[in-house]
Design brief:
Order of helices and strands: EEEEHEEEEEEHHEE
CATH architecture: Alpha-Beta Complex
Distance between the termini: 27 Å
CATH superfamily: Nucleoside Triphosphate Pyrophosphohydrolase
CATH topology: Nucleoside Triphosphate Pyrophosphohydrolase
Shape: globular
Structural class: alpha+beta
Strand content: 35-45%
Number of helices: 3
Helix content: 10-25%
Number of domains: 1
Largest sheet: 6 strands, mixed
Radius of gyration: 15 Å
Length: about 150
């Protein structure tokens, strides 16, 4: 039976500086990304995003806006991996700069767009900044290169 994994990712933006919060991940899904994590059993997508940001960054966020979903489908096992994307500029708290997954830091949007990441994050970055995208869809398996398409 195919497995379905539900996760989230949140772009937190500082209204004062315009910078966004990123993680330089060193464990799972290595590379640069926005913070986020897994949806727990019985938990809503928004509640899971709020909890994950608190756990990974120390920040309390609210007023999340949906930016769409990244949807991976394994073309051999038919497993699915979904990442619900959100953004907010409404946060408070003290940033945790280092944690088990890696480092958290603020970066300008231009700097972020100029960085190429090994995990494919840059492929669906437009979903956070441009209107008109609802989904990024990709087919994958462990034996072939993957590609993701914005829809």
């Amino acid at each position: 039976m195919p497995k379905v994994e539900l996760t989230n990712m949140v772009m937190v933006q500082d209204k004062t500086t315009g910078k966004v919060l990123v993680q330089e991940r060193i464990k799972t899904w290595k590379g640069l990304s926005f913070p986020g994590g897994h949806v727990d059993e019985g938990e809503s997508f928004v509640d899971s995003a709020i909890r994950e940001i608190k756990e990974e960054t120390g920040l309390e966020i609210k007023n999340l806006k949906s930016c769409g979903v990244v949807h991976w489908s394994n073309n051999k096992t038919f497993d699915r991996y979904l990442v619900f994307l959100y953004k907010t500029a409404d946060f408070e708290g003290e940033l945790i700069t280092e944690m088990g997954e890696g480092k958290n830091y603020w970066i300008s949007i231009n700097e972020l767009k100029a960085k190429l990441t090994t995990n494919g994050f840059h492929n669906y970055l437009p979903m956070f900044f441009e209107e008109g995208f609802n989904e990024a869809f990709g087919s994958w398996n462990d034996d072939e290169p993957w590609e993701i398409v914005l829809k």
